[in-house]
Structures are given as structure tokens and as C-alpha cells.
Amino acid sequence: MPAVSKGDGMRGLAVFISDIRNCKSKEAEIKRINKELANIRSKFKGDKALDGYSKKKYVCKLLFIFLLGHDIDFGHMEAVNLLSSNKYTEKQIGYLFISVLVNSNSELIRLINNAIKNDLSSRNPTFMCLALHCIANVGSREMAEAFASEIPRILVAGDTMDSVKQSAALCLLRLYKTSPDLVLMGEWTSRVVHLLNDQHMGVVTAAISLITCLSQKNPDEFKTCVSLAVSRLSRIVSSASTDLQDYTYYFVPAPWLSCKLLRLLQCYPPPEDGAVKGRLVECLETILNKAQEPPKSKKVQHSNAKNAILFEAISLIIHYDSEPNLLVRACNQLGQFLQHRETNLRYLALESMCTLASSEFSHEAVKTHIETVINALKTERDVSVRQRAADLLYAMCDRSNAKQIVAEMLSYLETADYSIREEMVLKVAILAEKYAVDYSWYVDTILNLIRIAGDYVSEEVWYRVIQIVINRDDVQGYAAKTVFEALQAPACHENMVKVGGYILGEFGNLIAGDPRSSPLVQFNLLHSKFHLCSVPTRALLLSAYIKFINLFPETKATIQEVLRCDSQIRNSDVELQQRAVEYLKLSSIASTDVLATVLEEMPPFPERESSILAKLKKKKGPGAVSVTELEDSKREGGELNGGSDRGPDTAAMAASNASTPSPSADLLGIRSSAPVGAAPTSAGSLLVDVFSEAGPAAPSAAVNDDGFLSSAPPSEDPAPPLSEADELLNKFVCKNNGVLFENQLLQIGIKSEYRQNLGRMYLFYGNKTSVQFASFTTTVSCPGELQSHILFPQLNVQTKAVEPLVEGGAQIQQVLNIECLTDFSEAPLLNIKFRYGGALQNLTLKLPVTINKFFQPTEMASHDFFQRWKQLSQPAQEAQKIFKANHSMDTEVLKAKLLGLGTALLDDVDPNPENYVCAGVIQTKGQQVGCLLRLEPNAQAQMYRLTLRCSKDSVSRRLCELLAEQF
Amino acid sequence: MIGGLFIYNHKGEVLISRVYRDDIGRNAVDAFRVNVIHARQQVRSPVTNIARTSFFHVKRSNIWLAAVTKQNVNAAMVFEFLYKMCDVMTAYFGKISEENIKNNFVLIYELLDEILDFGYPQNSETGALKTFITQQGIKGQTKEEQSQITSQVTGQIGWRREGIKYRRNELFLDVLESVNLLMSPQGQVLSAHVSGRVVMKSYLSGMPECKFGMNDKIVIDKQGKGAASDDAGKSSGKQSIAIDDCTFHQCVRLSKFDSERSISFIPPDGEYELMRYRTTKDIILPFRVIPLVREVGRTKLEVKVVIKSNFKPSLLAQKIEVRIPTPLNTSGVQVICMKGKAKYKASENAIVWKIKRMAGMKESQISAEIELLPTNDKKKWARPPISMNFEVPFAPSGLKVRYLKVFESKLNYSDHDVIKWVRYIGRSGIYETRC
């Protein structure tokens, strides 16, 4: 490659640059640049042609000015001229300018592409390289379009120089990344794969990057690369450090190539061919062996290169997850790194071990390092390393070491970093629940957790402990006792008060026998915390008090006194006030029997996914831990619980503890389908607080006829559709716009338009109150049939989320894009949830999307009509209904309705002018369904006869049902 | 209250740093450098808020002066102080440059100690400061001199010491105005205003009481009414001007100005600025610029500019400079002008036409042919306005000094004995015509 000699250096450019660097101020710099630009302009404009040298010089100056941040809008032509020069330096500057300042001027692009084409077809390797670099640097779609077919040819041609091949491979990779659709490998595939056998290591390194990227997209096409890669790898691994001359880096043979090979292998499952597999295993063993050898050099580069290969090999071993021997060895190797001086190595070791822990073969091996990991958690300086250590502890935990790990994590929690506390709390809670053999231990752990890190304990954690205590009779007494003791501490966390209030309210009677925890003592203890708590907690405590009245009639007077006191009954908070008033009345009016029924002990909770787990998953995202989690619990279910101890009472236990037949099902987020409100708690569920995230404020509990509180607990599950939803739906069969729904709070307007199988619907949500709606969310779902065909959806509804806040009196708009894929009968459901003054409102409506919306009117003559009518003569294709008129039989109204239906109303077809005849085609994505309609009114009898014939039987039935409601 | 004051050179190196209050840490110096001087995007606002700290800066050539505060100060006060500081430094060592600041840093610290006390501005009158802060080092001062300084600095009239004596009582009065204009291509005035200053240099003995009078419309009208002569009122009304707003040197008795609109004061010794004012009505525009720009195809532009002087033929305008901006893709310019010299300055993207002198009611023109390089950019040339600089020996606002009376009761010289000089200079501010 011709180097730029001193004499060839551009003096003018050097002077210009040094002038600019010497400028004292920005203004001076701008002045100098303006002067230079004017000079260049006059030179370019000048009549006499510039020689290559000056052209190059000026283009260089322009480039420099551009890189300083000034706009350059000329000089492109000169740069393109430089491309056709024969001098390397001039060509190089030309390409540099083009790749920095590419301009989408079509004329120029054509010239540039032409120049590149010339260079690509030239025999000069440096020119070819320059052209390839330019393509890769620009990497635009136009470039890809022009050269995507050319480059593979250069890449695999036999006579191409090695350096050009290298450039071509990387250039192709770049083009593939920007526009994968244009780079079609097709016939080149096998020849590209064979580049792995190339003599030149540089070519192999470049090609492997390309192959890795391509094989991620279409693994099958590149399957052959596995055996080639393995043989290549084994050759490198087995070579002595002197074999590969230029490619040996600090005594490690070709480390980059090895890493890339190992990474390529990670795209594929273990090779099926025994020989190949044997060879690969041998390679991996050699790599692991080499790690044990004493280092050949003290230099950090040597160990870095070696470790890079080692870690890549370990990830491959973990990826295969089939060689117990290798897994254990990898684990031991990592164990050594756990005590290494290098923080980075310790971090990497912990991270890799996390994945190893989830493999059944190496789980036990990982467990041997528990002491080291615990030590790391306590002593590591770097918080990110501590975080990894915590992750690993979580991953390696099982029934045998749960107690130790949970205890360690708890003790660490006191000093833990604030940034990881919440996550630690969740992990402790999950582990404690998952591996609890003895539920008193579980209760102790969670209460400890609340005591140590109360602020970080989320709602889910204490909901969960209450669910478990309620569902398990054997711990209730113990829980009540422990809670009572915990509450005696002078300063308790509010979460502790919540748990305490709830548990004592339910099971206070179990410890009432002891004079030290007599009912009054319990009550006084709770009430001493009352004034320090926030409103939701106070509301919960009030509920606990009313439960006390039921449990211990002797406390009734004291509690009524408290409820009657002004600070309760006239509390400024509506919720508290209402509870105080209602509970007071309830306690004074209702007889003990009634009280006992209303305030019965909470029934066991239905099984559901541990909400904590869901929370952790949400926190972590779809990252490594959730996968581990999933696999973890699979193993858990399979090995530990799958056996003997799945008794009837474990079945009632926590959901994640594998009580359902498929242990992973609960993790997949399938919630118990029964709406929570329908649980058998409706009468006594005063303490609905624990249910779901809907918040402790029970909805403004309406007083029922019989004076009891009926509190349909607001839940996150969509409410069942309104009863009048069908009626609403019918209103919209023949029209597209109008008011869909209205109550005191909310009005929903609708505007829709349809074209062929596509529709667009505008929903307008109007807030009729003067108060803001908070957390306003809408979801559209397709019920029943629509959803069951997951593979063949019938309707495709797309929408964007709406603003979560709707101001009083304001209106927000939502657009739904609807695509009809095939015919359907059920309308999609629209679920609306929002908070109005703290209470959750939950509303489900049917969206007025019916099959007839996708009608295309068809005009046809009488003759055609009857011909088609006859063609559709199979009994299934016809649907007929005779029904009484619901509305007036006015001709104009009927006509308007039939037109609104979307069909063409055909005149002069039916011999009887009284009858109406319509024709239309229903457009779906998959097919078109022709429909013919005939409506025969009988004015005397106020009856209609409706006949429909469609090319698809389900359509005619559905249409018939729909239309019968309209007339 | 100003917390501290920093002076930087153009590279952002700190030349002077004086912190007055504890709430300003050392890192404030760097914060300003990083966020303002070295900011990626040029900071245009003179006030910058960084981490609850406000920086007020002014720039003099390449030097940055920044005042820092954590409190909610009156920004106008801070800027007034910074300008005053610049004036004081100029009075002591001439131009504010990096070189001068480095050479005089001891003096500057001394000045800063004197004119700011715990962040509160003190006496910043150059004349007064010069009596006790000198560049000659410590001069042996007698007891009397010292007590005199004390009494002056602490006394009621801080800007003048007692016992000044001159053989010739003399005073110089300069009315300096800058006229700003924006005119449409058709010759319609879009905006115009004059900002003026009355600068005085007085060499008067004792403690004289001065009274300054000018053709302020309010005063003239009042007098016209007092005289009860309609004719007089009309004739004087013609020549009176409406002053939009004005500010005075601290020596002027504001109470008297408020009640009688008379300007009376005991002047400081030496040079000072008596008042500043602004007018917007009835401005005499000294020059009219008539542009004519024609685009001939994509690669050529023809420009013709005529300037007309619009004042008495006996007066001579000086230092006239017309700046005609050229498009950014200019590749060559040919200029022809009858008078003066014209040149295309590529570094400024403009044709600069200079005329040394020009009498009133004259006309002169320039024509230029600009060659353009065709660019692939579709952007049209924005046609920036043609700007102009000049100096004329009259006040474009029409302000006239009617009298300046000097009374000194204790010493035996009267108003007639004082030699008075009055001079009017009108300069261009931003004087632009769109083309």
C-alpha cells in the first residue's frame, strides 16, 4: 500500500489546520473558515481545471471544515472526480469525503456507484478494499441495493486476495445488518461456510463474524458450519503457541478466532455426529486443562486472552447442558475464580455460576461453593459483585440449604446497599415461601424481614404472608403469638402493624387465653399504633376492631367508644369516616348471630400465583433470573414435590409450591379464572384489603336492602360485561357513530369507518364529573371463540394505550385499528378501568364490531340476483327467521336501516314491491363471502320474514340473528 | 448579594478569583468554565443557573467577568456593578486585556476589596477611588489627607472631596448618541430609537452647585404655560424632544428632578457620565440606504446600493462604512464605486464600503456583481440586512443643551467665569436596511 510520503503531504492543508488551531476565539475561527471557503469556491469556480493534487487538498480542507461542525454544501462533484483518479491518496480522500458527507442527490449517487463498481471490478486489491470500505461505511439501503449481489461473488471468488476477502466479508456483514432483506445468500451459502477452511486466519476471523450473524437468522442453512468450526477450533486449540506465528497473542494461539468459533457454536445445539461431538468435547477439555497450567507469561494480556477463551468455552458448556463431567469441571474452575484477586474475574465467575446453578448436572457442584459466595456477599467492595453474589445465592438455594441462605441474606439485608434492598427482600420472601418446611419458620422469617427492612417490603410480601397464614390452620396460633410479640416493640414498621392488625383480627382468639395477651391487651396494643399510621392502615385497623367485637364481646364497649370518638366518626377522610359509622352501627344494631355470620373468619384464599414472584419477574425483566426461576421451579416440582410429600395439605399451600398438576403453569401467569369478587367471601369479606392490588379502600360499600355491607371487591380482573351490552351492540348494527355508553361518570362516544376488511374506530371517553380519573386504562380483548383460535384469530384489533389521567370534564380519544381476518360472531370486549375518587371503576362493554360492518355493497340486476340466489340453495347456506316487528314498519326507516347495514338495496328485483332485497360481499382477509338478503314485511300481522343466503353458512346464521333484532 | 467574582481569559483560565461569601465553593469557578465558556453550544444568556448558583457574566473582548451568587439578587444591580467594574478597570489601566489584567492583579484585588464589601457594592466612583488606591504603591499620606479621605468616603457627598482648587474653572459637556434603525427595502421605518449619554468633565473649584437644562418637552411645555404666551409655546415646542426614560449619576438630586424636573447636582471632579436617556420619536435619520438586489440566473447576483445623507450640507459625516452581506456560495465579486473604497471580505461574507467623509444632502452609490457557485442545496439565501456605521456632529434625537449653570457661593467665581464646552456626537448603533 503506497504510504503518504512527506513530499506528498499537503502543505496548504497543514497551514490551514494550524491557523485554525491558533485562533484565539470562536469568531476568529469562523472568519478564517469563511475566508478559506471563499477561496475554495473561487478555485472550484475558476475557469482552469484543477490538478488532482489541489483538488485533493481542497476536498481535504472541506472535510476538515465539515468535521469542525460547519455546513458544507458544495465540493461533492470534485470528490466524486477524485474517485476516478489512479492515485491511491487521491482516491482515498475521495472515498473518505463520500463516506463522511454522503448526499442523497440522485445524480451524484449514480456517479458514486459507478465509480465504486469500477473499483470493485478492477484487479487492484487496494482499490477494491477502498471501495468495500466505502460501501460498509455508508451502509445505506441504496448501497445495499446496488452491491448486495456483487459482494458475495467477490467474497467467494477463488482469485480474490485475502485482504479483499476480509473486507468483503465484513462489508457484507454490515449490509446484512442494515438491510437483511436485500442480502440473499442462497447459492453462496456453502461456499461462504467453506471460508472457515481458508488458509488465511484473517479471512476466517472476518468470515466467522458474518456466518455467526447469518446463522442466527437461518440456522438450518448454515448447519454445516458446525463441523467445520469444530475442526478449526480443535486445530487451534491443539496447536503449539508457536504454530500460528502472526496470530499468537501473548502465547495464546488466535484468541479472537477461538472466541468467535465458540460463540458460533453457541448458536447450535450439540452436534449429533458422535465424532464431531467427541472432538469438540476434547477441545473443551483441553481449554479447561490449559486453564490449570501455570501461565506462560506474567503479562495481563496473556491471562486476559486465556480467560476470554475459557469463559466462552464455559458458556458453550452451559449452553449444551449435556456433559455432566464438563459442567462440574467448569464449575470447579469458576470456583477457583471466586477467590481470584481480579474483581472482574470474580464478577464473571459469579455470573456464569448463576447459569450453572440452574443446570441439574452442576447444581450440586455449585452448592459446594456456598461459603465462598456468602463471604463474597459480605465482603465484596463492589456493589455489582455483591448483587451477582445475591443472585447466585438465590439460584443455588434448595430445600437443603434454604435455612442457611435465607438467614445469611436476612443478616446481610441490614447492611445491604439501598439499591438492591427491595430485590433482596423479594428474594428472601420467595425463598422462604418456596422452601418452607415448617411454617412457623416462614412466619418468623417474613416478620423478621418486615422488621429489618420494612420500607422495602412491598405490599405483595405481606399480602402473601396473610394468605398463607389464613390457608394454613397449623400456623395461625403461632403467627398470632409472634405478631403480638413483634408489635410490642416500641417502634414498629407500618407493614408490621398491617400484618398484626389483620392476623390479630382474625386469630386473636387463639392467644387470648394467656392473660398477658388478653383481648383488651391486644386491642390496646393495636390501638397504641393507630395514630402513627397512614389512612389505609387505619382503615384496616378499624376492620380489625370490628372483628374484635365479634371475637371478644367483652371489648365491645371499649371499641364502640373508640369508634364513636370524633376523630373516627368525623374523620376528614371519607373512607375512615364511613367505616367508623358503619361498624359502629353494625356493632350496635346487629345481634351476635348476625355479627358472627358477617364477621366470620376469612375463608381460605383460592390458589393463585405468588404475586411476589410476578413482581420479581417484572423487576428483572425477561432477564436471566426469570429463566432460571422457571427452570428452577420446574426442577423443584419434578424432583422434590413430585414425589411423596405432595399430600392434601401441601396442595392447599402456596401456589408456586407446585400444587397444580403442571408445576410451571402458575409461573406462566395464568391467574385463577374465577373473578375474585365471586369467591365465597361476599358476605364476610369486610377485610377485602388483602385481596389484590386494588388497595385497601373498599369501594364505597353500598348498604344493601338487608342492611349488610355488600362489597363487591374491586379487582384487577375485568368485570363481566354489562348486561345491557348486547342491547348496546344492537344499536350499532346499522349505524357507525353515536354514544356507546353513558352513566353518571363516563360517556363513551364512538365513530367508526370501514373499508373492505379494515376498519378504524375512534372512541371518545368523556369524563362527566369535575374530578380527575386516575389510572385510566382500556383494554380490548376478543372473547370466547375469537380468542380460542390463537393460531387463527378472527379479528385483529390494534390500539395504543390512552393517557392514564382524564381531567374532570375532559375528553380523550382512542383509535382502534381493526382488521377482519375471517368471519366471526362474538364482538370484541372493551374493558375500562379507572379510579374515581379512590374507588376503582371497572366496566366491560361489547365493541360494536359486527360482521356486517365489513359489507361491500354489490349492485346487480334482477336476473343476476335470482341466478345467484339459486346457486346458494344448500340448506346450510340459508337462514330464515320470522319475527314480530319491534319498531315501526315505515318504509323509509327500513330503507335507511338496510343501507346502514352496508349492503346495496336493490330496486325492481323482487316481483313484490313491498319486499326488500339486498346484496353485498363481506370482505375478510382470507376470503370474501357473498350475501343475499330478502326481507318480507307483513304490515297486517306486524311480522317480518327475513331470509339470508350466504356462501358461508356461519355467516348467514350470524347475520340472521343480528338483523332480527333490528326491525 | 454577590458571592464572588471571577475573571477568566478566553481559554477559561482563571485570572482573578475573589470570593466574598462562604456559600460559594471553589468548584463554582470550574462550573462556570465548563458550562458556559467551554459549552458546546454558545451560551447567549448573560445569566446562567448551575446547581442553584447564578452566574452573571459580561464579556470584554476576550475576557469574561462573572459574578456568582446563591441568593436571589437583583440582576440589574449585578450587571450595573459589573459594568462599573469594567469602567473602573479601564480608568486605571486602559484596555481590559489578559495582559493588562495579569500585570495589574494586585491592583484589581485591591479594587475588589474596596468596591465590594461582603458582596454589597460600595463606592465605585473612579475619582474617589483614585485618591486612595493608587498604582504608585503606598504613598506617604499626611494625617490631614487621611482624614480628608475618611470624611469623603463616609460623608454625605462621597463623590467629591472638599478643598479642590483650579486656576481656570472649566467644564466640558459631550452629548453622545447612538442611533438604531431597522428599515424595510421600501424605505419604511420598522423600528428606530436613539440611546444617548451626557458625559461631563468638570474642573471646578470648591463645592459648586450645577444646574443643567435641555430641551426636554415637559420642561419646555411647562415654561411655555408659565409664560402664558401661545406663540412662545409653539415655537419652543417645535424644538423640544420627548425623552422616553432617563437615568442619572448618583450626584443628581432625584427628588428635585421628580418634583420640578430640573437637574441639579454637585459634580464629581473629573470625568463622569451625568445621564443616560432614550428617545423614540422624531429621530433625524442621518443616512438613507436604498438597496437594489437582482438575481440573474442561479450563478449571478447584481447589487446596487445608494446612500443619501440627510442633514445640513454644512456638516460632515465621518467614518462611514456600509456592509453588504454576500451569499454563502459567493465565488467572486466585482465592485465599482464612485466614492470611497470598497472591498469583498471573504472572511466576513460581506462587501465593505468605506467613505472617509461625506457632507450633508449628498448621494453616493456602489454597484457590485457577485458570482455564485451552484450548490445542490435548495436553501434560499436569507438576504441579511445591509448595515451601516458612521459618525455625525449632531444629536440625531434633536437634544439640545440649553444651559449649564454653576453656582459656588463660598468661593468668589460666578457662572460667567466658568469656561464651558459643548460637543454633540451622533454614532450609528445597529443601523440596518433590509434588502
Automatic annotation (TrEMBL), chain A:
<keyword id="KW-0813">Transport</keyword>
<dbReference type="InterPro" id="IPR003164">
    <property type="entry name" value="Clathrin_a-adaptin_app_sub_C"/>
</dbReference>
<feature type="binding site">
    <location>
        <position position="53"/>
    </location>
    <ligand>
        <name>a 1,2-diacyl-sn-glycero-3-phospho-(1D-myo-inositol-3,4,5-trisphosphate)</name>
    </ligand>
</feature>
<feature type="compositionally biased region" description="Low complexity">
    <location>
        <begin position="650"/>
        <end position="665"/>
    </location>
</feature>
<dbReference type="Pfam" id="PF02883">
    <property type="entry name" value="Alpha_adaptinC2"/>
</dbReference>
<protein>
    <recommendedName>
        <fullName>AP-2 complex subunit alpha</fullName>
    </recommendedName>
</protein>
<keyword id="KW-0472">Membrane</keyword>
<dbReference type="Pfam" id="PF01602">
    <property type="entry name" value="Adaptin_N"/>
</dbReference>
<dbReference type="InterPro" id="IPR011989">
    <property type="entry name" value="ARM-like"/>
</dbReference>
<dbReference type="InterPro" id="IPR013041">
    <property type="entry name" value="Clathrin_app_Ig-like_sf"/>
</dbReference>
<dbReference type="InterPro" id="IPR016024">
    <property type="entry name" value="ARM-type_fold"/>
</dbReference>
<keyword id="KW-0653">Protein transport</keyword>
<keyword id="KW-0168">Coated pit</keyword>
<dbReference type="InterPro" id="IPR008152">
    <property type="entry name" value="Clathrin_a/b/g-adaptin_app_Ig"/>
</dbReference>
<dbReference type="GO" id="GO:0072583">
    <property type="term" value="P:clathrin-dependent endocytosis"/>
</dbReference>
<feature type="domain" description="Clathrin adaptor alpha/beta/gamma-adaptin appendage Ig-like subdomain">
    <location>
        <begin position="730"/>
        <end position="848"/>
    </location>
</feature>
<dbReference type="GO" id="GO:0030122">
    <property type="term" value="C:AP-2 adaptor complex"/>
</dbReference>
<comment type="function">
    <text>Component of the adaptor protein complex 2 (AP-2). Adaptor protein complexes function in protein transport via transport vesicles in different membrane traffic pathways. Adaptor protein complexes are vesicle coat components and appear to be involved in cargo selection and vesicle formation. AP-2 is involved in clathrin-dependent endocytosis in which cargo proteins are incorporated into vesicles surrounded by clathrin (clathrin-coated vesicles, CCVs) which are destined for fusion with the early endosome.</text>
</comment>
<feature type="region of interest" description="Disordered">
    <location>
        <begin position="624"/>
        <end position="666"/>
    </location>
</feature>
<dbReference type="GO" id="GO:0006886">
    <property type="term" value="P:intracellular protein transport"/>
</dbReference>
<feature type="binding site">
    <location>
        <position position="43"/>
    </location>
    <ligand>
        <name>a 1,2-diacyl-sn-glycero-3-phospho-(1D-myo-inositol-3,4,5-trisphosphate)</name>
    </ligand>
</feature>
<dbReference type="GO" id="GO:0035615">
    <property type="term" value="F:clathrin adaptor activity"/>
</dbReference>
TrEMBL record, chain B:
<dbReference type="GO" id="GO:0006897">
    <property type="term" value="P:endocytosis"/>
</dbReference>
<dbReference type="GO" id="GO:0006886">
    <property type="term" value="P:intracellular protein transport"/>
</dbReference>
<keyword id="KW-0813">Transport</keyword>
<feature type="domain" description="MHD">
    <location>
        <begin position="168"/>
        <end position="434"/>
    </location>
</feature>
<dbReference type="InterPro" id="IPR028565">
    <property type="entry name" value="MHD"/>
</dbReference>
<keyword id="KW-0168">Coated pit</keyword>
<keyword id="KW-0472">Membrane</keyword>
<dbReference type="InterPro" id="IPR018240">
    <property type="entry name" value="Clathrin_mu_CS"/>
</dbReference>
<dbReference type="InterPro" id="IPR043512">
    <property type="entry name" value="Mu2_C"/>
</dbReference>
<dbReference type="GO" id="GO:0030131">
    <property type="term" value="C:clathrin adaptor complex"/>
</dbReference>
<dbReference type="InterPro" id="IPR022775">
    <property type="entry name" value="AP_mu_sigma_su"/>
</dbReference>
<protein>
    <submittedName>
        <fullName>Adaptor related protein complex 2 subunit mu 1a</fullName>
    </submittedName>
</protein>
<dbReference type="GO" id="GO:0016055">
    <property type="term" value="P:Wnt signaling pathway"/>
</dbReference>
<dbReference type="InterPro" id="IPR043532">
    <property type="entry name" value="AP2_Mu_N"/>
</dbReference>
<dbReference type="InterPro" id="IPR036168">
    <property type="entry name" value="AP2_Mu_C_sf"/>
</dbReference>
<keyword id="KW-0254">Endocytosis</keyword>
<dbReference type="InterPro" id="IPR011012">
    <property type="entry name" value="Longin-like_dom_sf"/>
</dbReference>
<comment type="subunit">
    <text>Adaptor protein complex 2 (AP-2) is a heterotetramer composed of two large adaptins (alpha-type subunit and beta-type subunit), a medium adaptin (mu-type subunit) and a small adaptin (sigma-type subunit).</text>
</comment>
<dbReference type="Pfam" id="PF01217">
    <property type="entry name" value="Clat_adaptor_s"/>
</dbReference>
<feature type="binding site">
    <location>
        <position position="356"/>
    </location>
    <ligand>
        <name>a 1,2-diacyl-sn-glycero-3-phospho-(1D-myo-inositol-3,4,5-trisphosphate)</name>
    </ligand>
</feature>
<dbReference type="GO" id="GO:0008289">
    <property type="term" value="F:lipid binding"/>
</dbReference>
<feature type="binding site">
    <location>
        <position position="354"/>
    </location>
    <ligand>
        <name>a 1,2-diacyl-sn-glycero-3-phospho-(1D-myo-inositol-3,4,5-trisphosphate)</name>
    </ligand>
</feature>
